[in-house]
Each structure stands twice: as structure tokens, then as C-alpha cells.
């Protein structure tokens, strides 16, 4: 579905991501993990067009998207969420979801100012698309509530609905479980499974290893911006390079990295 080849970006003399070749398969959940400063969020920023790579190529559904700006990447079918919940708390849940659909509309500034027929049609399409996204995340019943009045889990679901309303084929989730308690995390895992069962492909950056090991079909491990392992969870969890680079003292007496890594930043 998505392939990166020799992907890299340099900030000054620092290689944030260096010579990464990897793939994300359709219909699967792929987790990107690694210690602090590994380049995980930078990797997401490259895929989604927020950063332009210094080296390498990105192909999505057979097409080169390496140099496309973010809005064109979204239009091709890649959407993402962010580490911090980036919703508009003063707007309704539905209004937030509608924002994500706007990338699919055609009306311009003059249409909006003059309230043309095209603008009205686009607004109705956005409303329908937003409601469909809220149905998928279980928030249709809260569509007209203020987004800021929802729980932490609810606000996370609003953020996911904003991404889903652009009708993506690949959804990038950047630390989706950050700040959530164990019960909320379990609910989130169920939602992600449901989305994939419905035909979506998901890639996520996450520090909660209980979520990663219980959810991911494939894991990509980055360290100092380079890929050190890639494969299914049972293989990656036993990889000596992963244990040395990522786990450290947390490798002893427990699940892979579950203690001490939660809440860290990429």
C-alpha cells in the first residue's frame, strides 16, 4: 500500500530519519515504535507531507507522493491525527468532523462569501461526511454537543473522526492512547480494530506497549532515525537489537517496554 525507499531528512547536521526502507500493508495495523528521539513522528510527518524528505522516495498505491504538499496527500487518501488532541473545543462535535471533509470539497473563497449553490452543496456534503465519520467512531449521538465538553476519550474520537471524514485509505495515528486510562485504552483498541475490519489500513506511533503488542500486525522499530527491525510482534519482541536499543533496563521482568516509556515523545 505504502512504500518508502531510502527515506531520510536532515535538520542542519542532524539526521532525524536516515535511509529507511519499509512498507505498510493494506488491511493491517502497523505500529512504529522506538525510544525517545527515534524519529517516529518525523517519519509520520514525511509520509503525510508535513516535511519534505532530503533523500528517498514515498509511493502510495503505486504513485509517487514524495513531493506532494499535505492537502494533496490527504486528497490521495492519507489522513493523520497528532500527539496532542487538535480539535476545536468551542465548536460542536459535528462541526469538527465537517472540517476534515473540506479537503474533498470544491468551493472557494468567493463561493463561501457569496453563499453560492456550490458552497451550499459542499456544506451539505461535509455535513453528511462528518456524520458518517461520527457514526464510525461512536459519537453520532453527541454530534451537537460542544467538543470541549467531552471526556478525554471522546475528544480523541473527535480527532479520529476529523481524519476519517476526509475518507482516507490509510489512517496515521500519532500516540492515540496518550493521556488515556486503561479502560479508555481498551476502548480505543476496539475502535481501531473495528475501523480496520471496515476496510481501513492503520499505522500508529504509540508508547503503550500493551496496546502495540495486542493490536499490531506488523511493527517497525526506529532508533536514531534508522530502521533496526521490522516484522510481526512476536519476532520484534525477541530481536536482540530491539531489546538493546529500545528496552534497556525495561527488558527485565515484564512485557516489552511497558514500564517507563509511556508518555515519552518521539
TrEMBL record:
Pfam families for this protein: ABC_tran, BCA_ABC_TP_C
SUPFAM superfamilies, A to Z: P-loop containing nucleoside triphosphate hydrolases
Q: Where is the ABC transporter domain?
A: 2-249
User: GO: which molecular function terms?
Assistant: ATP binding
Does the keyword field hold Nucleotide-binding? yes
Q: Which UniProt keywords apply?
A: ATP-binding, Nucleotide-binding, Transport
Name the Gene3D superfamilies on file: P-loop containing nucleotide triphosphate hydrolases
Q: What is this protein called?
A: ABC transporter ATP-binding protein
